[in-house]
Write a structure and sequence with these properties.
The protein is an alpha/beta fold and about 260 residues long. Helices cover about 40% and strands about 15% of the residues. The chain is built from 9 helices and 8 strands. The protein starts with a strand and ends in a 5-residue tail after the last helix.
């Protein structure tokens, strides 16, 4: 059984969601987590998770979406986190990719959401782009806030830094980009981490795997290919890798059941 721990399901990019989600189960993808990145998408994720048995969701504010943030929004995120199918607070984090980045605001809202997750005994899904050293420093300083679990989704930093993040008890998910022929850094990271730290994701509708390169939208149907690549790197069968990932996901996201 496969699981996609980080996707972005909506009503705009995928056409007929009923047929698509039916096809997930037929391909062996039994559970999918659709991830909120602001208040509106968190509510949409909740609505989709309520409609489909195998879909779960997260709620949170992404670092590049903070222009939408208004005081009081975290109170709404807290209410969403109480939902029985909300498995994590996220995605939250840091992203220095764009030249107009407000690093101070990103740090403030990231920390506020980490504190909220800790108070709610929730794991977090973390976005981290072009900010490796700051991310490691912040999470090291506030490591106690990660005691309920943390995932660095679509991990893109070095294999060496991954070992430092791993010391903090963090898990890592990898998507379609890890299957690309030139993805040497991701493959080194997958090969070097403890197998109990590895998870599969798509970040759909983005980042298709090698066999679907250039197509849109990517979907959770790509998970078997991603898992097979991970199994090959680790010298395991696909069945063994899928079972490990399934168990890792349910250990991290306890509300998956």
């Amino acid at each position: 059984m496969y699981i996609d721990v980080h996707s972005h399901l909506d009503y705009e990019n995928y056409g007929d969601l009923d047929s698509l989600i039916d096809s997930f189960a037929l391909s062996g993808v039994k559970k999918v987590i659709t991830v909120g990145f602001d208040l509106k998408s968190s509510y949409i994720s909740k609505e989709i998770a309520e409609k489909y048995d195998g879909v779960y969701f997260t709620a949170g504010f992404h670092p590049t979406e903070l222009s939408k943030y208004r005081e009081g929004d975290l109170d709404e995120i807290e209410k969403l986190c109480a939902h029985p199918k909300c498995v994590a607070l996220g995605e939250i984090g840091l992203d220095y990719h764009y030249p107009d980045t407000d690093k101070g605001l990103q740090h403030e809202l990231f920390l506020r959401q980490l504190y909220l997750a800790d108070r709610l005994s929730m794991p977090v899904q973390i976005h981290s782009r072009d900010c490796a050293e700051d991310m490691l420093a912040l999470l090291t300083e506030h490591s106690k806030l990660l005691r309920h679990g943390a995932l660095l989704h679509c991990y893109s930093h070095s294999a060496e830094l991954a070992k430092e993040f791993e010391k903090l008890g963090i898990c890592f998910s990898f998507g379609g980009a890890s299957t690309w022929k030139g993805a040497k850094k991701a493959k080194r990271t997958i090969g070097g981490l403890g197998v109990d730290r590895l998870l599969t994701e798509t970040d759909s509708p983005y980042m298709p795997p090698q066999s679907k390169y250039g197509t849109f939208p990517n979907t959770s149907l790509s998970i078997p290919e991603i898992c097979a690549c991970m199994a090959d790197i680790r010298g395991l069968t696909v069945e063994e890798m899928a079972k490990i990932v399934w168990d890792n996901a349910h250990r991290l996201f306890v509300k998956l059941g």
